Amino acid sequence: MLRYPLFCDLQGKTCLVVGGGEVAAHKCRTLLQAGAHVTVIARWFHGDLTALAGNPHLTLTEADFDAALWPQGCWLAFAATDSPEVNQQVLEQANARHCFCNVTDAPESASFISPATIDVPPVQIALTCGGNPVYTQFLKHRVMQAIPADAPVKLRAAARLREQVKATNASRDAKRLFWQKFFTDTALEQLLPLEDEELLTDYLNYLLAQFTEEHGIR
């Protein structure tokens, strides 16, 4: 494994996108969705970018790239111009600042890559296949088909019990077994589609009571 996979918390963090085309616009949209504050430097801006201009967390700077324009405290940078030379300059400036940089036309030289993603909140999956975008999209489709339709609602139900289960005296193996049973619980699977909050709460409390009775609370 040549690259270390991780998910970044960019809420309120400053990010830089150099370039004003469709690729840059896509990067901006996903960064803004992640809560980042985004500065874009470009000679011109695609309509998809100007459509985002009303976002208070987006700053559009119409200019050639210059190191003097580098935003203070930048966490991530994206070199997304149609000029390999400019993209290389952005990468060099990022490296000098110990800032991770994605280079859209030369991912092999970048300090990080943007993988294909699957977002079915709260499920997030990132995929990359050695730089082969066709197989990555093929695999993405297969993975999406494998995600159970009730995964989001089941995970939200599990989140309601997580802290209480952690607070028990149960061993790690016992807690793991609890969650394995939870995610395959037939009664829960039949209950979730009903969207009856009272019934769901009662059943979750029942499952928790069984577990705490067996293992106790710290």
From TrEMBL:
UniProt-listed GO biological process terms: siroheme biosynthetic process
Gene Ontology molecular function: any one: ferrochelatase activity
Protein name as catalogued: precorrin-2 dehydrogenase
Signal peptide range: none
Reaction catalysed by this enzyme: precorrin-2 + NAD(+) = sirohydrochlorin + NADH + 2 H(+)
Top-level taxon in the UniProt lineage: Bacteria
SUPFAM superfamilies to which the protein is assigned, alphabetical: NAD(P)-binding Rossmann-fold domains, Siroheme synthase middle domains-like
EC number of the protein: 1.3.1.76
Keyword annotations from UniProtKB, A to Z: NAD, Oxidoreductase, Porphyrin biosynthesis
InterPro entries in UniProt: Met8-like (IPR028161), NAD(P)-bd_dom_sf (IPR036291), Sirohaem_synt_dimer_dom_sf (IPR037115), Sirohaem_synthase_N (IPR006367)
Pathway(s) where this gene product acts: Porphyrin-containing compound metabolism; siroheme biosynthesis; sirohydrochlorin from precorrin-2: step 1/1
Pfam families xrefs: NAD_binding_7 (PF13241)
Catalytic EC class: oxidoreductase
